Amino acid sequence: MYDLQEMEAIKQLKYKYVRCLDLKRWQELRECFTDDATSAYSGGKYTFDSPEAIIKFLVDAHDPPEFFGYRHCHHPEITFTSPTTATGLWALEYEDFDLKDGLIHRGAAYYQDEYVKLNGQWKIKFTGYDPIFISIEKMANRPGLQIVENGFAKK
Description:
By secondary structure, the chain is of the alpha+beta class.
């Protein structure tokens, strides 16, 4: 059995990943990955073979000020495969607003991660998710909907 502090460190790593994605903190997000990290998002539809390619994909998809949202990762199932490796399964829920195209994206999925402890720090070696559902709704279909604050709008 591995120390609960190690499990908590992995949880903190995943929470940092989600926070950095939501807040568009791309340099800080890079700190979450090993140098050889890979990903397979949306059931492998979007697959990348380096942290730089992962970050570029996330920036291209999420960086415009007219696109913002939030993610919640919860119910972690973390399994230690050695003192310096682990896997994780996480429930994901998200909602994104695309003001340019007038769309709301919602979804739920399960992340499958692999972690490695390097120089005393846990890092993501692989991340990806398999969707349960993804929905898109036109904002025009919700006439009462108002975005009254956008923390990414230019001031």
